[in-house]
Design brief:
single chain; 214 residues; mainly alpha; two-stranded antiparallel ribbon; globular; disordered C terminus
Length: 214
């Protein structure tokens, strides 16, 4: 297995997303985020927009799936990080339903589709890349190996600042596209009195079910 760590992250992402959103929404989020990330990478490796110009080293071609000049799993990895940023943003803004020995994040549709979740989710995704890209661009110094490089280098440990601007834009576009799909769907809602810990102190009167259907 060429990149076992990707499959570990994929499994963790699927577990977290499916248990929270269900299979349909997880599939939709994955498709949207991957498609936008791939389009951005396809563009950046040719004209430098939006991440800045970089080049993938094709030493693994023939041993993993490549789409044109971009490894499939690199674009797919963006999906995991974007979901983490999105989920953390929801956690920051959603009230908690607290019960004895239990608490749940009461994320309503209004919170999930809000501008503050969009901006904060994109920011948190970009914040993670402040650590990830400087490490991966030096992959030859550890087990990852040399995957890509920036021909012109960059001022942040070899990474150009345009990369982070690109990450924010791509994350924002992915979250915004998913939010647009979310607004077009209707899922069941239930009162707080029907959820675990009802009757205990809480910060919300209603909440959207995480298993809402599309």
């Amino acid at each position: 297995m060429l990149r076992p760590y990707v499959f570990v992250f994929l499994a963790a992402y699927l577990f977290a997303a499916v248990t929270r959103m269900g299979w349909a929404k997880t599939a939709a989020f994955s498709a949207v985020a991957w498609a936008i990330a791939y389009a951005a990478e396809f563009s950046s490796t040719r004209n430098g927009v939006p991440f800045g110009l970089y080049v993938y080293v094709d030493a693994t071609r023939g041993r993993e799936l490549w789409l044109s000049n971009v490894p499939f799993f690199d674009s797919l990895s963006f999906t995991f990080l974007c979901y983490l940023g999105y989920a953390l943003a929801i956690f920051l803004y959603a009230p908690l339903v607290c019960g004895r020995g239990d608490f749940q994040v009461a994320d309503t549709r209004a919170i999930r589709t809000s501008w503050r979740v969009l901006v904060t989710g994109a920011f948190l995704t970009t914040l993670m890349d402040l650590v990830i890209d400087p490490l991966t661009v030096r992959g030859e110094r550890w087990f990852l190996g040399r995957i890509y490089y920036y021909p012109a280098g960059g001022i942040h440990f070899g990474v150009p600042l345009s990369n982070y601007a690109g990450w924010f834009l791509v994350a924002a576009a992915s979250i915004a596209a998913f939010q647009a799909l979310e607004r077009r769907t209707r899922g069941p809602r239930r009162a707080c009195g029907t959820c675990p810990g009802a009757g205990s102190s809480s910060r919300s009167s209603t909440w959207g079910s995480s298993s809402s259907t599309w």
